[in-house]
Every structure is written in structure tokens, then in C-alpha cells.
Write the C-alpha cells for this entry.
Amino acid sequence: VEIDLPNQRIQLGEGQFFGEVSVLRKTLRSGNVRTTQPTKLLILDAYDLRTIMIRNPKIGQAIQETAHSRSELKPRNQQGDMIAAELEPIANQIPGKDEDQ
């Protein structure tokens, strides 16, 4: 898939994910996504995504780390763009997130 953001285009490959920050924070998405080849997508709402993150700590940690790094790359403004600290309540629900795995 390709993600068109205001100032850049990002390509994601097999097994990668997008939209996690918006789903977890219930905010508007910051880009448009389109497929560049036949693609199977798994669509999750916030409840299902959080459930997966809590029940599967390794997956939860990977999503948490990706969401954190992506939120740091987003420009922040006074319209309420999320800040990295807002992800902490989610991270605190993931069992073993601070343990070596």
C-alpha cells in the first residue's frame, strides 16, 4: 500500500500496518491509503485492536513502538494532534512490555 501524507508518500509492504494511531486515539487520519497491487486487509476497531495488544504482548509491544515512533514524526499543532505521552495508557495495559523477550 501507499500512504499519501501532506508532505510525503510512504510505501508499506507485506505484514506492515497503518492507522493504529488514529484507531487507538479515535482521531482523524492524516493521510490517504491506496493499494498498489491485490491486497488483503484486516480492519479492526479500537476495541479489537486494544484487545489484541493486551492478549498478545509481543504484538502489542510492536504496535506500541510503531505508534510511538510515528506520532513523533507527525507535526504537532494546536488542533490537537496527539503527543507521544498519550500512548502511555495503552502501553501500560500490555503485559510484559518492559521485559526482555
Q: What stands out?
A: The two ends are 30 Å apart (CA to CA). Residues 2-91 form one domain.
